[in-house]
């Protein structure tokens, strides 16, 4: 498997100053997916936004992994609801005009 | 520049312990953290306030300085000079009492008292690299502007950004442009630019999903006897056959004459036309006579 589009986890640990166990725990509850290539662990590059958010929530709010999981599920729900509101507003415009 | 009461911001009194400060900060951060309140400007402002308060009060040296000179912040400069002299005598040379946190976003009060260099996230530590802030912008366009894929140059924060606007983009839709947001913290990558489209429909067409809807006037005789009319579609004129005895409110569908489907080149929604039959007005004597004769043929 090519390492392109992947970031090594040890780099992220260094960058965000978190333990490797932080990423393993996130992986255990499916918040991230760790891929092993040539005995090194990686995460997909396009998941970096989510990972940074998880690090911030952990660091700024002192939330543990379960807390991060709850927050992420709720944020996803909010995102879905916001998209639904936009779509409903657009439909409402159709009847109001 | 007004004095900022950091104790009030965190809802604690002056005798609060370090644990009380941490507890108050965490409680408020959970409420106003930007990651938990996406697109909420008020929450973002509040978070900056509590973060700033925490930066000052959680650091004993800064807290002492704030307690001593807070209300009298104009004298902070003199205080700083005196401290610096003292450090020079001691062989130290640190300019900023907060250490090196990278670029920040603090109040004028904070910057005048503690210097302008501090992190936008108090607990991120000195050398942690973070992506820059995501920036949000709104782009106002007319519905006709998004009928075809278009390239535009936008000037955001003094920088020109070439943007491709795909045909069929919807009102309220957000397009993310990677790496055009705020500068990274401590050398981290730049944030993203999120552009929200605000699309104004000033056409005679209503848009629902990818389908367009419009109403076309039809004269009575064509509705009864049938014929051909020319109608306006979104991208030009089209000829339509009118079936004899067409009823008022009849809907016809023009397949593929609707709005382009987002990011599906060459795929369009449909156009729905509703016929609205116009009754003749100011009838002549002859017309009235003929209608009377017609009415007699269909007694109700």
Keyphrases for this structure?
A: 97 residues; mainly alpha; Multidrug-efflux Transporter Regulator, Chain: A, Domain 2; three-stranded antiparallel beta sheet; B: 300 residues; alpha+beta; Helix Hairpins; HSP40/DNAj peptide-binding domain; three-stranded mixed beta sheet; 11 strands
Give a written overview of the molecule:
The complex is a heterodimer of chains A (97) and B (300). Helix content of chain A is 65%, strand content 11%. With 97 residues, chain A is mainly α. Chain A has one domain: Multidrug-efflux Transporter Regulator, Chain: A, Domain 2 (Orthogonal Bundle), CATH 1.10.1660. The termini of chain A are far apart. The mean pLDDT of chain A is 88. Chain B is of the alpha+beta class and 300 residues long. Chain B folds into three domains: 109 residues, Orthogonal Bundle (Helix Hairpins), CATH 1.10.287.110; 66 residues, Urease metallochaperone UreE, N-terminal domain (HSP40/DNAj peptide-binding domain), CATH 2.60.260.20; 92 residues, HSP40/DNAj peptide-binding domain. Chain B is 29% helix and 24% strand. Chain B is built from eight helices and eleven strands. In chain B, the strands form four sheets. Chain B has a four-stranded mixed beta sheet with strand order 6-7-11-10. Chain B has a three-stranded mixed beta sheet with strand order 1-5-4, with no helix packed on it. Chain B has a two-stranded antiparallel ribbon with strand order 2-3. In chain B, a hairpin with a 2-residue loop joins strand 2 and strand 3. The longest helix of chain B is centred in the N-terminal third of the chain and has 17 residues. About 9% of the residues of chain B have low confidence. At the A-B interface, helix 3 and helix 4 of A face helix 2 and strand 6 of B.
């Amino acid at each position: 498997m090519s390492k392109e589009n992947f970031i090594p986890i040890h780099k992220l640990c260094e960058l965000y100053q978190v333990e490797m166990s932080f990423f393993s725990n996130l992986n255990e509850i499916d918040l991230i997916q760790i891929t092993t290539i040539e005995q090194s662990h990686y995460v997909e590059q396009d998941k970096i936004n989510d990972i940074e958010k998880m690090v911030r929530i952990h660091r700024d709010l002192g939330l543990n992994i379960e807390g991060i999981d709850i927050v992420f599920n709720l944020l996803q729900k909010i995102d879905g609801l916001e998209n639904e509101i936009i779509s409903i507003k657009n439909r409402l415009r159709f009847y109001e005009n | 520049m007004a004095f900022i009461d950091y104790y009030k911001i965190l809802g604690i009194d002056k005798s609060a312990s370090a644990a009380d400060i941490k507890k108050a900060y965490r409680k408020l951060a959970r409420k106003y953290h930007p990651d938990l309140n996406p697109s909420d400007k008020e929450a973002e402002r509040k978070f900056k306030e509590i973060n700033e308060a925490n930066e000052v009060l959680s650091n004993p040296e800064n807290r002492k300085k704030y307690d001593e000179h807070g209300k009298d912040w104009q004298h902070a400069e003199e205080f700083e000079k005196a401290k610096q002299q003292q450090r020079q005598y001691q062989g130290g040379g640190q300019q900023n009492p907060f250490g090196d946190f990278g670029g920040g976003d603090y109040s004028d009060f904070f910057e005048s008292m503690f210097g302008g260099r501090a992190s936008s996230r108090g607990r991120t530590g000195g050398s942690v690299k973070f992506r820059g802030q995501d920036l949000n912008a709104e782009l106002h366009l007319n519905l006709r502007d998004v009928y075809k894929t278009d390239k535009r140059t936008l000037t955001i924060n003094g920088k020109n950004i070439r943007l491709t606007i795909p045909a069929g983009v919807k009102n309220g839709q957000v397009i993310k442009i990677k790496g055009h947001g705020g500068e990274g913290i401590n050398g981290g990558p730049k944030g993203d630019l999120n552009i929200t489209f605000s699309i104004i429909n000033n056409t005679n067409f209503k848009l629902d999903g990818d389908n367009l809807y419009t109403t076309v006037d039809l004269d009575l005789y064509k509705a009864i006897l049938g014929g051909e009319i020319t109608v306006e579609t979104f991208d030009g004129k089209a000829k339509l056959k009118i079936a004899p005895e067409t009823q008022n409110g009849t809907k016809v569908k023009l397949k593929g004459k609707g709005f382009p489907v987002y990011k599906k080149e060459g795929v369009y929604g449909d156009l729905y036309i509703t016929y609205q039959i116009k009754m003749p007005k100011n009838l002549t004597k002859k017309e009235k006579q003929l209608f009377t004769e017609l009415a007699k043929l269909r007694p109700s």
